[in-house]
Design goal:
The structure is a homodimer. Chain A is an alpha/beta fold. Chain A has helices spanning 9-27, 35-42, 46-54, 68-78, 94-100, 103-107, 138-145, 156-168, 195-204; strands at 32-33, 66-67, 85-90, 110-117, 126-127, 130-131, 133-134, 149-152, 173-176, 189-192. The longest helix of chain A is centred in the first third of the chain and has 19 residues, at 9-27. Chain A binds a DNA duplex through residues 8, 10-11, 34-36, 45-48, 50-51, 53-54, 58-66.
DNA sequence: TAGATTGTTAATCGATTAACAATC
DNA sequence: TAGATTGTTAATCGATTAACAATC
């Protein structure tokens, strides 16, 4: 995987899609696929697929296609999904709790290792197999947990504060569910998931009457 | 709002962001803003902001800027957020439950009017102020509910089946949380939210060692 | 009037896709 | 060899941004 070239964000997002489709094919014992197959299964143009892979090297054999197992494992390596990633969640409300118990994350090698909250009523309570911890101790706690991925599942009003704490706790990538723009230092990657925004876009597409 | 011109998807997404920022400014009694202000608050380039608005008409005054209240209400109209939108959720698991109780949706004029599930243990149970209903009856139920927006919060294995039912129930836009590509008829809009994909992209950005 | 800021055009940038030589 | 399909180049498409005349 030649580095130094910047990979377009859409390519990375599609890579995750390919991985999920390939995992499925692997389970179903399908050995080989072509870029054309990928197109029918994902809607991504075949040339797009090949181009996406080309950022990371050569993966297929002309005339034959791609070996499912090999391609799957190479994408896994590119996305750093081979080893289990510890993840911390801040916010033990409905959303944080749902995420903590979300099975597909575990299936994909992400392990929720701690859930933090600031509410004294929640601290100490059990959530799935975890004990909710005081967010005030996150810097200390993460010295042993060593999570590099953090999830912000708190109201917008306290999201920046929580994000700052995560950065202090040496978390370097953040998935933000609060509908607010986080200001973060260089080197920290954020992705925002905004349910209201998603629904607003759908709302725009609603038929005019009816 | 001259129609017939296709609005880029990124523009629509940013429109929702502007709306949320403007709502906040309105509450804080700020009367006027410039595109440069928007840039500092959202990170969106000032020219981009003006271009985004230009798809829908003229909104500001040269030399002055934009009236917060007016701009807010016009974006609200563009995104069809002025009147309350009924929304149905299929899937009363952790995620569906969290979404049903998610306050910011309500604040933005989306009203969860029903939650459906297929599990007999869940059907009839209370969730917030709603009674969980049998998904088998969704077509019938939605004749009175008249929801045009549906949320799919079920496992990937049954997502397509659920989406088909939603379409039969005259839902025309779907927010899909299942990590699978839904095949839907022309005229039905889908947006996918994939937590695993989000984390996979973050995973890619993780520092090589540490 | 001078200063600020819009709406829009034109230039730039980047991502998608078609086409094809290389190769299995 | 003939047919299939890759990896990559070049053409196309679309989105972002800089620049500026219009205007408050």
């Amino acid at each position: 995987m030649p580095d130094g070239i910047k990979v377009p964000m859409p390519t990375l997002e599609r890579l995750a899609t390919y991985f999920s489709v390939l995992t499925d094919l692997k389970v179903r014992n399908i050995e080989t696929i072509s870029s054309a197959d990928i197109e029918t299964r994902t809607g991504v143009n075949a040339a797009q697929f090949r181009k996406d892979l080309s950022y990371f090297g050569e993966f297929g054999r002309p005339g034959i296609g791609y070996n499912v197992i090999e391609l799957c494992s190479r994408i896994s390596r590119i996305l750093k999904l081979e080893k289990t990633q510890p993840v911390v969640i801040v916010g033990a409300g409905n959303l944080g709790s749902a995420l903590a118990g979300y099975q597909p994350l575990r299936a994909e090698n992400f392990r929720i290792v701690a859930v933090f909250d600031s509410n004294p009523r929640k601290i100490g309570a059990q959530l799935w197999s975890l004990t909710i911890k005081d967010v005030a101790n996150i810097v200390e706690e993460n010295k042993t947990l060593k999570a590099k991925i953090g999830i912000v599942a708190v109201p917008a009003s306290v999201a920046q504060e929580v994000a700052d704490r995560l950065v202090k706790a040496k978390v370097s990538t953040i998935l933000n569910f609060a509908p607010t723009m986080l200001r973060l230092p260089e080197g920290v990657t954020v992705r925002n998931v905004d349910f209201v925004q998603e629904l607003a876009v759908l709302s725009f597409h609603l038929p005019e009457n009816g």
